[in-house]
């Protein structure tokens, strides 16, 4: 079965760093882009960025560029989303997604179950 | 404010056909495929329609997608209570041919209520 596995919950304090993971399984990991999508409580979906596991080519949404870092370790079929300093406004659900095909604009066919990040003092 | 626009809510009765619109511009819907996602409360979104009008395996043919110019639509026929969910359209947005400058955009979502 093709799936993306994420940790369920992360709780952090403002100013702390965080790196969340997304492990791909059931498919050839390097053949599909992996992206990240944010959903704030009660709100819609926001595209954050995407990475090609083959060569780590990374594209960011202008709204998130400089605020997060997307990376990948293809040897363990895992993509990452990280923050160096969290603030309360980062509280949200974060989904990793797999591209439908080999192109960056191919849409997302597989979604992880999401990581709920709560930032609170 | 979302780059692509959807109505925030629609409603219908069982058995009815409803349509959700998604309006964009020439740099997004007008020149790229449209995708639709379905999300139930507390769960991850699921791909419902890809490349304007294609259904992934397992999606009932009650769901159909279309695109014309800078707008797209998702139609749901034979409405049931199980269709009550949020629906999001999405497309690639790029002002130039260089895909490095592009990004994915989502509509704000439409909450479907089955009365």
Short account of what is shown:
The complex is a heterodimer of chains A (121) and B (115). Chain A has 121 residues and is mostly beta strands.
Question: Largest beta sheet of chain B, briefly?
Answer: 6 strands, mixed
Sum up the overall morphology of chain A in one term.
Answer: globular
Q: Distance between the terminal alpha carbons of chain A, to the nearest Å?
A: 39 Å
Radius of gyration of chain A: 14 Å
Give structural attributes:
heterodimer; A: about 120 residues; mainly beta; four-stranded antiparallel beta sheet; 11 strands; globular; B: about 120 residues; six-stranded mixed beta sheet; three-stranded antiparallel beta sheet; 9 strands
Walk me through the structure.
The complex is a heterodimer of chains A (121) and B (115). In chain A, 0% of the residues lie in helices and 50% in strands. By secondary structure, chain A is mainly β. In chain A, the strands form two sheets. In chain A, strands 2, 4, 5, 6, 9, 10 and 11 form a seven-stranded mixed beta sheet that branches. In chain A, strands 1-3-8-7 form a four-stranded antiparallel beta sheet, with no helix packed on it. In chain A, a hairpin with a 4-residue loop joins β5 and β6. Chain A is globular, with a radius of gyration of 14 Å. Chain B has strands spanning 9-12, 18-23, 34-39, 46-49, 63-68, 71-76, 85-93, 103-106, 110-114. Chain B contains no helices and nine strands. In chain B, strands 1, 3, 4, 7, 8 and 9 form a six-stranded mixed beta sheet that branches. In chain B, strands 2-6-5 form a three-stranded antiparallel beta sheet, with no helix packed on it. In chain B, a hairpin with a 6-residue loop joins β3 and β4.
List the helices and strands and how they pair.
The complex is a heterodimer of chains A (121) and B (115).
Chain A (H helix, E strand, L loop, with lengths): L2 E3 L3 E4 L5 E8 L8 E6 L5 E8 L4 E4 L8 E5 L4 E6 L8 E8 L8 E4 L3 E5 L2
Parallel strand pairs in A: 2-11
Antiparallel strand pairs in A: 1-3, 3-8, 4-5, 4-9, 5-6, 7-8, 9-10, 9-11
Chain B lengths: L8 E4 L5 E6 L10 E6 L6 E4 L13 E6 L2 E6 L8 E9 L9 E4 L3 E5 L1
Parallel strand pairs in B: 1-9
Antiparallel strand pairs in B: 2-6, 3-4, 3-7, 5-6, 7-8, 7-9
């Amino acid at each position: 079965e093709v799936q993306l596995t994420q940790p369920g919950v992360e709780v952090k304090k403002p100013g702390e760093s965080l790196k969340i993971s997304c492990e791909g399984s059931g498919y050839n990991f390097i053949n599909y882009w992996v992206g990240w999508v944010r959903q704030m409580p009660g709100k819609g979906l926001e595209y954050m960025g995407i990475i090609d596991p083959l060569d780590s080519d990374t594209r960011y949404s202008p709204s998130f560029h400089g605020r997060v870092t997307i990376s990948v370790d293809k040897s363990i079929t895992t993509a990452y989303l990280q923050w160096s300093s969290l603030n309360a406004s980062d509280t949200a659900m974060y989904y990793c997604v797999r591209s439908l095909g080999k192109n960056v604009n191919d849409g997302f066919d597989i979604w992880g179950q999401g990581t709920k990040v709560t930032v609170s003092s | 404010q979302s780059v692509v626009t959807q109505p925030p809510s629609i409603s219908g009765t069982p058995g009815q056909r409803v349509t959700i619109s998604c309006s964009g511009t020439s740099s997004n819907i007008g020149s790229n495929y449209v995708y639709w996602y379905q999300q139930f409360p507390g769960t991850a979104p699921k791909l419902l329609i890809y490349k304007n009008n294609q259904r992934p395996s397992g999606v009932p043919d009650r769901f159909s997608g279309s695109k014309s110019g800078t707008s797209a639509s998702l139609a749901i026929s034979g409405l049931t209570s199980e269709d009550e969910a949020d629906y999001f359209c999405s497309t690639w947005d790029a002002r130039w041919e260089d895909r490095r400058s592009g990004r994915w955009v989502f509509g704000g979502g439409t909450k479907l209520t089955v009365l």
